[in-house]
Request: fold
Amino acid sequence: MIHIRMKLAAAVAALGLIAGAPAALAECTITMGAAVSITGKYSTNGMHTKNGYDLAVKMINDKGGVKVGDKTCKLAVKYYDDESTPARGAELAERLIKQDGVKFMLGPYSSGLTKAIAPVTEKHKVPMVEANGASRSLFTKGYKYLFAVLSTSEQYLQSAIALAAENAGKLGKKPEQMTVALAMENDPFSQDIRAGVMEDAKRHGMKIVIDDKLPKELNDMSATLTKVKALKPDILVVSGHAKGAATAVRQVAEMRVDVPVMAMTHCDSAKVIKKFGKAAEYTLCASQWAPTLSYKDGVFGSAADFAKLFEKTYNYAPPYQAAESAAAVLVYADAFSRAGSLDPDKVRDALAKTEMQTFYGNIKFDETGKNIAKPMVLYQVLGGKYVVVAPSKWAAAQAVIPRPKWSERK
Reply:
């Protein structure tokens, strides 16, 4: 027990936290800016993002704040609603930096919003640590002030295609005989996932038989599902954020679409188990994080500890969007302390040298600002719970493939 306490004390010190010091003694306040989707089509995940930021700020402040040089500082976040609109997000980033004097930005929700804001923060040389913009194209622009704690989009469903290939024999096929249907939102994130899935399918010799874009409002994919019923692909891959995930699970059940493997993003943030019950069973779900993983830090403790605290605070289990958002704040706290200064360029340089473990995972940035230290995981809904089935290192159960046909389900 003493050894564990010493390790946690070291982790607290590494994050620059003042162990046991009351937040009231803070000598300064570091205000970070964030344009987040409070309204609009991304409002659900915008709420998860804000809750993650707020919980991390509270925990750090409750532990005494952050030591920056010879000062003790508490953290705060100034929010604006970007209305799920890229143009509005860019406008609000300008406002936060130029009018409100914010020197440090937290990212918005979604790759599209992050793409709109990144040129603004780069122009003003304001660091942005973002947690919810996974599009790989964000990291091909040469940005020096953008850092992302999450895995990039092309990795999201790689494990789903690999898992399907590994289980091809259960369908009486070889991997190169399998067929794939795609239903993707027409946004940067989902189109990057599409590109990654197509590359993976090609590598296994699989054939793409449906390649559809989801309707703009993400509320009806019956046209695609009609094709699925007719062409009978082995794999259906869906990406449309929380709203797209909810639509897919609902309509696949309503239309009784039988497909051996169905994989998608945003199952947990769409609350598909709570909303759809048994209809969500056997769905494969990409995730940046799981509460069962063995990561730890000195602020939240373990991944399981974070999950317990988050649920107690907000009355729902944390989706990965909340976890990665909290991790972004931990990264800033660590960088502020190591920089020993609130000069944006010094903090930027400290961010570039980040190498740490949080409850969310390991974080180390490459020269483009990507986190190169954390893999994705793949859940399957089994028995009304999200169960990690890939990668095998963290798998808690073997995936059920093929999905039982609707006529065989109780």
User: Anything to note?
Assistant: Confidence is low (pLDDT under 50) at residues 1-12, 19-24.
